[in-house]
Amino acid sequence: MTPAATIPAVTIPAVLARDLRKSFGSVEVLRGISLEVKPGEVFGIIGPSGSGKSTFLRCLNSLETVDGGDLYVNGEFVGHRFRDGRLHELSDRELSAQRMRTGMVFQRFNLFAHMTALENVVRGPVVVKQTPRIEAEAEGRRLLDLVGLKGLYERYPVQLSGGQQQRVAIARAMAMQPDILLFDEPTSALDPELVDEVLETIRQLARDGRTMVVVTHELAFARDVCDRVAFMEQGQLVECAPAAELFANPQMPRTRDFLQRLNSTNPARQ
Amino acid sequence: MSATTTDSELPVLANVARVKLSHPSRWVVAIACLVGLALIVRAFALGQIEWTFVGRFLTAQAIVTGFANTMLMTILAMALGILLGLIAALMRLSVNPVARVVAGAYIWFFRGTPVYLQLLLWFNLALIFPTMGIPGLWEARTVDVMTPFLAALLGLGVCQGAYTAEVIRAGITSVDAGQVEAAKAVGMTGPQVMRHVVLPQALRVITPPIGNEVIGMLKHTSLAAVISYNEIMHTASMIYFVNNRVIEMLIVCSIYYLATVTLLSIGQSWLERHLGRAARRTSGAAPAIQGEPA
């Protein structure tokens, strides 16, 4: 997906959720989420722990299965195919092809522990897309340079700091050239002094016009980088507005409470 | 000894010589061990062992052939065991309940009966099925097919598979679920996740116990003597039935086993080091990694 300049007259939304529902056992964690992310948009999701924001993100690439409602990513229904008036579950192969088009960055990095930084980035394209290795390695080095890890290609994950690992994970997600990048609390597992290097990397991607959905606890970051921000609580989308608006002038009392509570305990970074 | 005192009355002992605590009991234990060892060596040296026989039979053609058969059976039975173990482990972890139960039953039966019994069972399979084959294509008498070699291979390999299945299963479940999610997220299919991410990491956990199993297998092949498979112990017994040099022949066998196990242990620790390289903070290959560039 290319930046905003080339968006055609009728655009397919990058993400479209309509009344999305998801339960774990008897606990309903997503209680009818409806939202739309436009191509090229950086969309932030904030909210207290257990509000369902991570689960929503994981539904976008089928790491969780949806129980009800519609979920489209790039105009494609997630997890099922509509045929003969019914929804047919996708096969392992079809699901993989669908996941390939979204890149995911996890809270706990999840770098492949037995591979070097470069191999972490290269293995996906080589195995999934059958990219020639030479080509994939050149691209992998370029991506690692881009996230500021020049010269650390041969390090194993244990030999890297948390911030460095997360930047490798970002390069790994980008190597598949996904249409959308998903970030699941990318800085929550990092020591405070390592947070900024990861946020700066994400900020840079935002400037390049990539479509991104970012679940985060970093309110200042969400305000500065996201085009729009949604506030979720107890499985519901309480409020969704342009970032500056949501933080400066929240409409819903629940949003106001949440922002006030956080601001009083944890003064905004920057 | 004169400790200088300061105005605080407490002696300054900084420059006084320090004496280590002596451990007389350690000396007693060490000496007892050495004396015991010396007595055992002396007993064997004076015992009725014809060491010249040991030397002569160490390189005898029959013994060398027997040892080659032992090695061949160890390698083939272990390969079969790892193959069956991998299949059974994947079946045990499958979402398909039938596959889970079948694999469980396989492990239950072959771990639940002695290898000795299983060897006899395979060797006497003709008593249950006098003939075997594919209807219309090929048929044979089971006694002709079930040679000592094949019976030993099946008996040892199929039983090994049941043990290996549990080792591999434990190795696979030890891999963090986040690794699987990350592999799926880059678009890998189930089998690709297994091959590129889960199994290579499980291998590090699996290798030490499998190494033990290989060493165990080397020695278990001696049980195949009971169905007259021509491995080293069987050969040795054929020889001592004739020349009556029982102890000498057993010593010859011990030397072969010990030498092989020593080599296997060295190979195993090399393999573990090789597989563990991703788990070490500083890689041995590149000790330059110390200063942490941002």
Automatic annotation (TrEMBL), chain A:
SMART domains: AAA (SM00382). Pfam families: ABC_tran. GO terms for cellular component: plasma membrane. Residues 15-259 form the ABC transporter domain. SUPFAM superfamilies: P-loop containing nucleoside triphosphate hydrolases (SSF52540). It comes from the Bacteria. It is a peripheral membrane protein. One of its GO terms (molecular function) is ATP hydrolysis activity. PROSITE patterns: ABC_TRANSPORTER_1, ABC_TRANSPORTER_2. Gene3D superfamilies: P-loop containing nucleotide triphosphate hydrolases (3.40.50.300). Keywords: ATP-binding, Cell membrane, Membrane, Nucleotide-binding, Transport. It is found in: Cell membrane. Belongs to the ABC transporter superfamily. This is Amino acid ABC transporter ATP-binding protein (PAAT family). It comes from Bosea psychrotolerans. The lineage of its organism: Bacteria, Pseudomonadati, Pseudomonadota, Alphaproteobacteria, Hyphomicrobiales.
TrEMBL record, chain B:
Part of the ABC transporter complex GltIJKL involved in glutamate and aspartate uptake. Probably responsible for the translocation of the substrate across the membrane. Keywords: Amino-acid transport, Cell membrane, Membrane, Transmembrane, Transmembrane helix, Transport. It is a multi-pass membrane protein. Residues 67-268 form the ABC transmembrane type-1 domain. The chain crosses the membrane at residues 27-45, 75-95, 115-138, 249-271. It comes from Bosea psychrotolerans. GO terms for molecular function: transmembrane transporter activity. The complex is composed of two ATP-binding proteins (GltL), two transmembrane proteins (GltJ and GltK) and a solute-binding protein (GltI). PANTHER family: L-CYSTINE TRANSPORT SYSTEM PERMEASE PROTEIN TCYL (PTHR30614:SF0), MEMBRANE COMPONENT OF AMINO ACID ABC TRANSPORTER (PTHR30614). SUPFAM superfamilies: MetI-like. One of its GO terms (biological process) is amino acid transport. InterPro entries: AA_ABC_transptr_permease_3TM, ArtM/GltK/GlnP/TcyL/YhdX-like, MetI-like, MetI-like_sf. It is found in: Cell inner membrane; Cell membrane. The keyword Signal does not apply. One of its GO terms (cellular component) is ATP-binding cassette (ABC) transporter complex. Belongs to the binding-protein-dependent transport system permease family. HisMQ subfamily. The keyword Isomerase does not apply. This is Glutamate/aspartate import permease protein GltK.
